[in-house]
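If you are new to this repository, start here. Below is one unmodified record pulled from the training split, so you can see the exact layout before writing a loader.
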Amino acid sequence: MWHSGRCAFLLALAALVFVGPGTAHAAMEGGSGARLSGADAPLWWFGFQLRAVTDGAAPALASDTMDAYKDLDSMHFDWGGGLAFPLALNLYRGLGMRVLLALTYSGDPPFDKAVAQISFLEQQESGAWSDRQYRTRPAFFVAGALATDVQYMFPLLFGAVKPYLGVGPGLYLNYVFTDITEDEYVLLANEYNDPNDDNNIDPYSVGLEPGFNSYLGLNFLVSGGMHLNFEVQYDLARFDEAPLLKATDEADARRAAYTYSVVTISTGLIFNF
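And here is the target side for that same chain:
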C-alpha cells in the first residue's frame, strides 16, 4: 500500500516538473489549457461590439425653465445603434483594466424619431429680439464615448463561459442635430444656412462632459482565442444647456440641458492573446 502511494506521489511530482503546474492542474481538472485562471490567463482581450442603445435621455431643467417646457414632449433619444471597440488587460488573477471607444447614433432615419428641446428669442416686427420661445423639435443624436474601467474577469470555472464586470469614469461627446421648421425660420436666416437646401444641416449643439459607466458581460469560447461576446452597459452623464451652432446670433438659440442616461445591449467577437 505504501509502495503504491509513493509511486503515485512521484508520478504527480514528475508531472508538475516536466509538464508545468498550470497544465498539470488543468489535466487533473479534466479540462484544457483554456481553463487556466489567475496568472496563467491570457493578458490581452480585444474585439468589437455591435450596439443597440435604448431610449435614455431625460430633461434636466432648472427651476426657471421647468414651467416653460412642462407642456412639451420630453427630450429623449429613442432606440439607436452603434459600434464599440473594447481593449482589456488582465493584471492579476482576473483583475484588470479596460478602455472602450464607442460611437452611437439615434434618430430618424432609420430609427424612431428623437426629440430635442430648444429655446430662442423671437424677432418682433420692430426688429427687436425678445420673448424667449420654448419648443421641442425632431432631432437625431450622434454620441461618442471613451471609458476607462476597472474590470474583473471571473476564473474559468464554467467551461467555455467567462463572465466579467466593470465600472469606471467616461468622457462623452454628444452632437444633437435639430430639425428646424418654418416656425423657427428666423434661426436659419443667416450666412451659415441655406433654408432652400434640403440637405442643409440645421443648427445643432455639441457637448463634452464627464460621466460614469458600468457593465456586465459574458464571453463564450468559440475556438482558440476567439469568443462570442454579450454585454449590457449603463452610461450616465449630465449635459448643460448649450448654444445652437449655425443659428442666427441675435436669436440666442439654445439646446436645453439633459441627462444622458442610456442602457446599451451589445454583441460581438472578442479575442484574447
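Two things worth knowing about this chain: Residues 44 and 94 are 11 Å apart (CA to CA). DSSP finds three helices and twelve strands in the chain.
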